[in-house]
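Action item from last meeting closed. Structure (346 res):
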Protein backbone atom coordinates (compact mmCIF):
# COMPACT_ATOMS: atom_id res chain seq x y z
CA UNK A 1 0.00 0.00 0.00
CA UNK A 2 1.31 3.46 -0.88
CA UNK A 3 0.63 6.70 0.94
CA UNK A 4 0.96 10.25 -0.31
CA UNK A 5 3.65 12.29 1.42
CA UNK A 6 3.86 16.07 1.57
CA UNK A 7 6.12 17.84 -0.88
CA UNK A 8 9.30 19.16 0.68
CA UNK A 9 12.54 20.72 -0.42
CA UNK A 10 15.78 19.04 0.59
CA UNK A 11 18.56 21.15 2.04
CA UNK A 12 21.83 20.70 3.85
CA UNK A 13 23.46 22.97 6.41
CA UNK A 14 27.15 23.37 7.09
CA UNK A 15 28.68 25.22 10.01
CA UNK A 16 32.02 25.28 8.12
CA UNK A 17 34.11 23.42 10.65
CA UNK A 18 37.38 21.52 10.31
CA UNK A 19 39.48 19.28 12.47
CA UNK A 20 42.79 21.07 11.93
CA UNK A 21 44.12 24.61 12.00
CA UNK A 22 43.87 25.06 8.23
CA UNK A 23 40.88 27.37 7.61
CA UNK A 24 41.62 27.48 3.88
CA UNK A 25 41.12 23.71 3.66
CA UNK A 26 37.99 23.91 5.82
CA UNK A 27 36.48 26.56 3.57
CA UNK A 28 37.42 24.66 0.39
CA UNK A 29 35.80 21.50 1.75
CA UNK A 30 32.64 23.40 2.66
CA UNK A 31 32.51 24.84 -0.86
CA UNK A 32 32.85 21.32 -2.25
CA UNK A 33 29.79 20.31 -0.24
CA UNK A 34 27.82 22.96 -2.11
CA UNK A 35 29.13 21.73 -5.46
CA UNK A 36 28.30 18.12 -4.61
CA UNK A 37 24.85 19.03 -3.30
CA UNK A 38 24.16 21.06 -6.45
CA UNK A 39 25.03 18.05 -8.60
CA UNK A 40 22.96 15.70 -6.42
CA UNK A 41 19.83 17.84 -6.80
CA UNK A 42 19.59 19.32 -3.29
CA UNK A 43 17.24 22.29 -3.35
CA UNK A 44 18.97 24.56 -0.82
CA UNK A 45 22.43 24.85 0.73
CA UNK A 46 22.58 26.70 4.04
CA UNK A 47 25.42 28.09 6.17
CA UNK A 48 25.41 29.18 9.80
CA UNK A 49 27.10 32.37 11.00
CA UNK A 50 29.34 32.22 14.09
CA UNK A 51 31.57 35.10 15.12
CA UNK A 52 33.25 33.00 17.82
CA UNK A 53 33.68 29.23 17.42
CA UNK A 54 32.55 27.87 20.83
CA UNK A 55 32.37 24.44 19.19
CA UNK A 56 29.63 25.71 16.90
CA UNK A 57 31.15 26.82 13.63
CA UNK A 58 33.85 28.68 11.77
CA UNK A 59 32.09 31.07 9.39
CA UNK A 60 31.76 34.72 10.41
CA UNK A 61 31.12 36.16 6.93
CA UNK A 62 28.40 34.04 5.30
CA UNK A 63 27.56 36.34 2.39
CA UNK A 64 31.15 36.40 1.14
CA UNK A 65 31.13 32.61 1.32
CA UNK A 66 27.80 32.34 -0.49
CA UNK A 67 28.94 34.68 -3.25
CA UNK A 68 31.75 32.22 -3.96
CA UNK A 69 29.32 29.30 -3.79
CA UNK A 70 27.06 31.09 -6.27
CA UNK A 71 29.90 31.14 -8.81
CA UNK A 72 30.57 27.42 -8.36
CA UNK A 73 26.98 26.17 -8.58
CA UNK A 74 24.19 26.43 -11.10
CA UNK A 75 20.81 25.85 -9.49
CA UNK A 76 20.97 25.13 -5.75
CA UNK A 77 19.50 27.91 -3.61
CA UNK A 78 21.82 29.62 -1.11
CA UNK A 79 20.77 30.54 2.42
CA UNK A 80 21.81 31.45 5.93
CA UNK A 81 20.51 29.58 8.94
CA UNK A 82 21.14 31.94 10.48
CA UNK A 83 22.62 35.42 10.04
CA UNK A 84 22.94 36.95 13.54
CA UNK A 85 20.79 39.97 12.77
CA UNK A 86 21.31 42.20 15.87
CA UNK A 87 25.05 42.30 15.12
CA UNK A 88 24.54 43.50 11.54
CA UNK A 89 23.71 46.91 10.16
CA UNK A 90 20.46 45.94 8.41
CA UNK A 91 20.92 48.30 5.46
CA UNK A 92 24.47 47.11 4.88
CA UNK A 93 23.30 43.50 5.22
CA UNK A 94 20.56 44.13 2.65
CA UNK A 95 23.23 45.32 0.20
CA UNK A 96 25.22 42.12 0.65
CA UNK A 97 22.11 39.97 0.28
CA UNK A 98 21.06 41.86 -2.84
CA UNK A 99 24.51 41.46 -4.39
CA UNK A 100 24.59 37.69 -3.83
CA UNK A 101 21.02 37.36 -5.04
CA UNK A 102 21.91 39.19 -8.24
CA UNK A 103 25.10 37.19 -8.80
CA UNK A 104 23.28 33.89 -8.22
CA UNK A 105 20.30 34.62 -10.43
CA UNK A 106 17.83 35.05 -7.58
CA UNK A 107 18.76 31.98 -5.55
CA UNK A 108 19.06 33.53 -2.07
CA UNK A 109 17.13 32.46 1.05
CA UNK A 110 17.70 34.75 4.06
CA UNK A 111 17.45 33.22 7.52
CA UNK A 112 17.94 35.48 10.52
CA UNK A 113 17.97 35.13 14.28
CA UNK A 114 19.20 36.70 17.48
CA UNK A 115 22.15 34.42 18.24
CA UNK A 116 23.11 33.29 21.71
CA UNK A 117 26.74 34.23 22.41
CA UNK A 118 27.30 37.03 24.89
CA UNK A 119 30.91 37.22 23.68
CA UNK A 120 29.69 38.04 20.16
CA UNK A 121 27.48 40.82 21.45
CA UNK A 122 30.30 42.25 23.53
CA UNK A 123 32.69 42.15 20.57
CA UNK A 124 30.26 44.16 18.45
CA UNK A 125 29.35 46.61 21.19
CA UNK A 126 25.76 45.39 21.49
CA UNK A 127 23.70 44.71 24.60
CA UNK A 128 22.81 41.00 24.68
CA UNK A 129 19.85 41.80 26.94
CA UNK A 130 18.30 43.67 24.00
CA UNK A 131 18.74 40.85 21.47
CA UNK A 132 15.00 40.39 20.84
CA UNK A 133 14.36 44.12 20.54
CA UNK A 134 17.31 44.56 18.19
CA UNK A 135 16.22 41.60 16.08
CA UNK A 136 12.77 43.12 15.60
CA UNK A 137 14.08 46.59 14.83
CA UNK A 138 16.69 45.36 12.38
CA UNK A 139 14.29 42.97 10.64
CA UNK A 140 11.80 45.76 10.00
CA UNK A 141 14.50 47.89 8.39
CA UNK A 142 15.97 44.93 6.49
CA UNK A 143 12.57 44.12 4.98
CA UNK A 144 12.11 47.72 3.85
CA UNK A 145 15.54 47.79 2.23
CA UNK A 146 14.97 44.48 0.40
CA UNK A 147 11.59 45.77 -0.78
CA UNK A 148 13.45 48.64 -2.51
CA UNK A 149 11.86 51.20 -0.20
CA UNK A 150 13.62 54.34 0.99
CA UNK A 151 15.57 53.69 4.19
CA UNK A 152 17.02 56.08 6.78
CA UNK A 153 17.16 59.13 4.55
CA UNK A 154 15.01 60.46 1.72
CA UNK A 155 15.91 59.11 -1.68
CA UNK A 156 18.22 56.32 -0.48
CA UNK A 157 17.49 52.80 -1.74
CA UNK A 158 19.93 49.92 -1.75
CA UNK A 159 21.59 48.71 -4.92
CA UNK A 160 21.27 46.45 -6.73
CA UNK A 161 17.48 46.46 -6.58
CA UNK A 162 15.89 43.20 -5.48
CA UNK A 163 12.72 41.36 -6.40
CA UNK A 164 10.66 38.69 -4.70
CA UNK A 165 12.03 38.83 -1.16
CA UNK A 166 8.60 38.84 0.48
CA UNK A 167 8.58 35.05 0.74
CA UNK A 168 12.30 34.37 1.17
CA UNK A 169 12.91 35.58 4.74
CA UNK A 170 13.14 33.05 7.58
CA UNK A 171 13.49 33.33 11.35
CA UNK A 172 15.08 30.87 13.73
CA UNK A 173 13.05 30.50 16.94
CA UNK A 174 13.19 28.57 20.20
CA UNK A 175 9.62 28.78 21.51
CA UNK A 176 5.96 28.73 20.50
CA UNK A 177 5.83 32.47 21.18
CA UNK A 178 8.76 33.04 18.85
CA UNK A 179 7.07 30.92 16.18
CA UNK A 180 3.89 32.97 16.39
CA UNK A 181 5.90 36.19 16.26
CA UNK A 182 7.67 35.00 13.10
CA UNK A 183 4.34 34.11 11.48
CA UNK A 184 2.76 37.45 12.30
CA UNK A 185 5.71 39.20 10.67
CA UNK A 186 5.49 37.06 7.56
CA UNK A 187 8.77 35.18 8.13
CA UNK A 188 9.10 31.49 7.44
CA UNK A 189 10.08 29.24 10.36
CA UNK A 190 13.48 27.67 11.00
CA UNK A 191 13.62 24.98 13.69
CA UNK A 192 16.93 23.96 15.24
CA UNK A 193 18.25 20.37 15.17
CA UNK A 194 17.86 20.09 18.96
CA UNK A 195 15.65 21.59 21.65
CA UNK A 196 17.89 22.68 24.51
CA UNK A 197 16.78 22.69 28.12
CA UNK A 198 14.11 20.01 27.66
CA UNK A 199 14.07 16.35 28.67
CA UNK A 200 11.39 15.40 26.13
CA UNK A 201 12.46 14.44 22.59
CA UNK A 202 13.12 17.41 20.33
CA UNK A 203 10.25 16.67 17.95
CA UNK A 204 7.76 16.45 20.83
CA UNK A 205 8.91 19.87 22.00
CA UNK A 206 8.97 21.50 18.57
CA UNK A 207 5.76 20.17 17.02
CA UNK A 208 3.58 22.57 19.09
CA UNK A 209 5.83 25.41 17.93
CA UNK A 210 5.20 24.45 14.31
CA UNK A 211 1.47 24.17 14.93
CA UNK A 212 1.43 27.60 16.60
CA UNK A 213 3.29 29.06 13.63
CA UNK A 214 0.80 27.66 11.13
CA UNK A 215 -2.18 28.79 13.22
CA UNK A 216 -0.82 32.34 13.38
CA UNK A 217 0.05 32.59 9.68
CA UNK A 218 -2.01 35.20 7.84
CA UNK A 219 0.00 36.01 4.73
CA UNK A 220 -1.02 35.47 1.09
CA UNK A 221 2.11 33.47 0.29
CA UNK A 222 2.59 29.89 1.43
CA UNK A 223 4.11 29.37 4.90
CA UNK A 224 7.29 27.33 5.04
CA UNK A 225 8.79 25.37 7.91
CA UNK A 226 12.46 24.51 7.64
CA UNK A 227 13.24 21.50 9.80
CA UNK A 228 16.93 21.17 10.62
CA UNK A 229 17.95 17.68 11.64
CA UNK A 230 21.18 15.79 12.25
CA UNK A 231 21.14 13.16 9.48
CA UNK A 232 24.18 10.96 8.87
CA UNK A 233 23.59 7.80 6.84
CA UNK A 234 26.46 5.37 6.36
CA UNK A 235 27.13 1.74 5.53
CA UNK A 236 25.88 0.71 8.95
CA UNK A 237 25.40 2.02 12.48
CA UNK A 238 28.96 1.18 13.55
CA UNK A 239 30.45 3.09 10.62
CA UNK A 240 28.26 6.09 11.35
CA UNK A 241 29.22 6.12 15.01
CA UNK A 242 32.89 5.97 14.09
CA UNK A 243 32.49 9.25 12.22
CA UNK A 244 30.10 11.10 14.54
CA UNK A 245 29.88 9.48 17.98
CA UNK A 246 32.79 11.07 19.81
CA UNK A 247 32.11 14.54 18.38
CA UNK A 248 28.46 14.48 19.39
CA UNK A 249 29.36 13.24 22.86
CA UNK A 250 31.94 16.00 23.40
CA UNK A 251 29.49 18.62 22.16
CA UNK A 252 26.84 17.41 24.59
CA UNK A 253 29.30 17.63 27.48
CA UNK A 254 30.12 21.22 26.46
CA UNK A 255 26.42 22.05 26.30
CA UNK A 256 25.99 20.58 29.77
CA UNK A 257 28.50 23.09 31.13
CA UNK A 258 26.09 25.86 30.10
CA UNK A 259 23.00 24.10 31.44
CA UNK A 260 21.47 23.15 28.06
CA UNK A 261 21.86 19.41 28.77
CA UNK A 262 22.25 17.46 32.03
CA UNK A 263 25.77 16.75 33.18
CA UNK A 264 27.43 13.37 32.80
CA UNK A 265 25.66 12.23 29.64
CA UNK A 266 26.86 9.08 27.91
CA UNK A 267 27.22 8.83 24.15
CA UNK A 268 23.81 7.26 23.53
CA UNK A 269 22.03 9.95 25.53
CA UNK A 270 24.07 12.64 23.78
CA UNK A 271 22.89 11.31 20.41
CA UNK A 272 19.30 11.35 21.66
CA UNK A 273 19.60 14.89 22.99
CA UNK A 274 20.87 16.06 19.61
CA UNK A 275 17.98 14.17 17.98
CA UNK A 276 20.37 12.32 15.66
CA UNK A 277 19.31 10.12 12.73
CA UNK A 278 22.23 7.88 11.78
CA UNK A 279 23.17 4.42 10.54
CA UNK A 280 22.14 2.47 7.45
CA UNK A 281 19.91 4.53 5.12
CA UNK A 282 16.98 2.15 5.70
CA UNK A 283 17.23 2.70 9.45
CA UNK A 284 17.45 6.47 8.97
CA UNK A 285 14.30 6.39 6.81
CA UNK A 286 12.38 4.37 9.39
CA UNK A 287 13.37 6.81 12.14
CA UNK A 288 12.55 9.91 10.08
CA UNK A 289 9.11 8.51 9.30
CA UNK A 290 8.43 8.71 13.04
CA UNK A 291 9.62 12.33 13.26
CA UNK A 292 6.70 14.40 14.57
CA UNK A 293 7.53 17.72 12.88
CA UNK A 294 8.45 16.37 9.45
CA UNK A 295 4.82 15.91 8.29
CA UNK A 296 4.25 19.69 8.49
CA UNK A 297 7.71 20.72 7.26
CA UNK A 298 8.20 22.12 3.78
CA UNK A 299 12.00 21.91 3.96
CA UNK A 300 14.12 19.13 5.46
CA UNK A 301 17.57 20.55 6.24
CA UNK A 302 20.17 17.86 6.94
CA UNK A 303 23.30 18.73 8.87
CA UNK A 304 26.21 16.90 10.51
CA UNK A 305 27.02 19.50 13.20
CA UNK A 306 28.14 19.09 15.98
CA UNK A 307 30.03 16.21 14.36
CA UNK A 308 32.90 17.02 12.01
CA UNK A 309 33.20 13.94 9.79
CA UNK A 310 36.12 13.79 7.39
CA UNK A 311 35.43 15.26 3.98
CA UNK A 312 35.01 12.01 2.08
CA UNK A 313 32.55 10.71 4.69
CA UNK A 314 30.58 13.95 4.50
CA UNK A 315 30.33 13.75 0.71
CA UNK A 316 29.24 10.12 0.94
CA UNK A 317 26.58 11.02 3.52
CA UNK A 318 25.21 13.71 1.19
CA UNK A 319 25.05 11.14 -1.61
CA UNK A 320 23.13 8.68 0.56
CA UNK A 321 20.72 11.39 1.72
CA UNK A 322 19.99 12.42 -1.88
CA UNK A 323 19.82 8.96 -3.44
CA UNK A 324 18.35 6.75 -0.70
CA UNK A 325 17.01 8.59 2.34
CA UNK A 326 15.13 11.58 0.93
CA UNK A 327 13.59 9.75 -2.08
CA UNK A 328 12.16 7.15 0.30
CA UNK A 329 10.43 10.01 2.13
CA UNK A 330 8.84 11.40 -1.04
CA UNK A 331 11.45 13.80 -2.37
CA UNK A 332 12.66 14.03 -5.95
CA UNK A 333 15.79 15.92 -6.96
CA UNK A 334 15.41 19.29 -8.62
CA UNK A 335 16.21 19.35 -12.31
CA UNK A 336 16.18 23.06 -13.10
CA UNK A 337 16.83 26.38 -11.40
CA UNK A 338 13.92 27.43 -9.24
CA UNK A 339 11.97 24.20 -9.77
CA UNK A 340 9.78 22.84 -7.00
CA UNK A 341 10.22 19.25 -5.82
CA UNK A 342 7.59 16.91 -7.08
CA UNK A 343 5.20 14.93 -4.93
CA UNK A 344 5.74 11.19 -4.98
CA UNK A 345 4.65 8.05 -3.24
CA UNK A 346 6.35 5.78 -0.74
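Sequence:
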Amino acid sequence: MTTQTPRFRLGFLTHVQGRDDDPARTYRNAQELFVAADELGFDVGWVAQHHVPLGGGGLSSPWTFLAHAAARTTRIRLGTAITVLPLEDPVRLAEDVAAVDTLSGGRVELGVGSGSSSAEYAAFGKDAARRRELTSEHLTLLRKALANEEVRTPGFRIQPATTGFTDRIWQGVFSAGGAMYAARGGSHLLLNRAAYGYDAPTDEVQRPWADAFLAAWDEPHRPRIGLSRFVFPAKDRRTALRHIGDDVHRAALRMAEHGAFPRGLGQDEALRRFHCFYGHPDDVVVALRQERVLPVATDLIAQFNPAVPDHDAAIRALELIATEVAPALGWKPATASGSEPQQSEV
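Note appended to the action item: The first strand starts at residue 9 and ends at 14.
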